[in-house]
Amino acid sequence: MKRALLVLMLLSGCATSGYDRLPKADQNDVHRIEAYLNGIQGLQAAFVQHGPDAGESGGRFSYIPGHLRLDYVVPHPMELVAGEGHLVLDDQGTGAVTHLSLRHNPLGLLLKHPIRFDGDIQVTDVRHGNGSLQISVAQADNPSQGLLTLQFSDVNGQLSLIGLQGVDARQHHFGVLLSDVKQGVVIVPSVFTPPAG
């Protein structure tokens, strides 16, 4: 029943902003996630990505608040750099460079800085597991543009980003699973300079 109501809310486009309607414990967890994401000095990890075509790719994940970079090694070298409202993918296998706006892309919900899950963002779901926590977020004024789920390990009150799941406006699903996560890594800003092209 809860999932059916969530789907109806997303399809209707009438979501309210923020997370005031959530139970107090869930609101506290959303605040913890905001503080964690805004406080990351630098995070790097190995990643495996599952895309809409059921293909699998992988490589190195780098994140600082407001910026993300994926260096693919499988199935072939590619660089994805996202931040400041734009995403650039340089496919070194084909030579193609793709530019996308983050305005209507679920990743844009992660790359606002500072991150605040209120105002123009709606928290649609908070889930707790054994040593895990995840939240799902969407654009409050147009939730049909996509949904992003952020997954964290949550051990002794310490959060660590371990995955992203998303669905875009065309109902394409993607998932990124992180491993060997290192936090507090110094990452030079030039790493997040988009590829030329």
TrEMBL record:
Designated name of the protein: Outer-membrane lipoprotein carrier protein
SUPFAM superfamilies reported in the protein's UniProt record: Prokaryotic lipoproteins and lipoprotein localization factors
Keyword terms, alphabetized: Signal
Pfam families, A to Z: LolA
Species: Gluconobacter albidus
PANTHER family named among the record's database cross-references: OUTER-MEMBRANE LIPOPROTEIN CARRIER PROTEIN
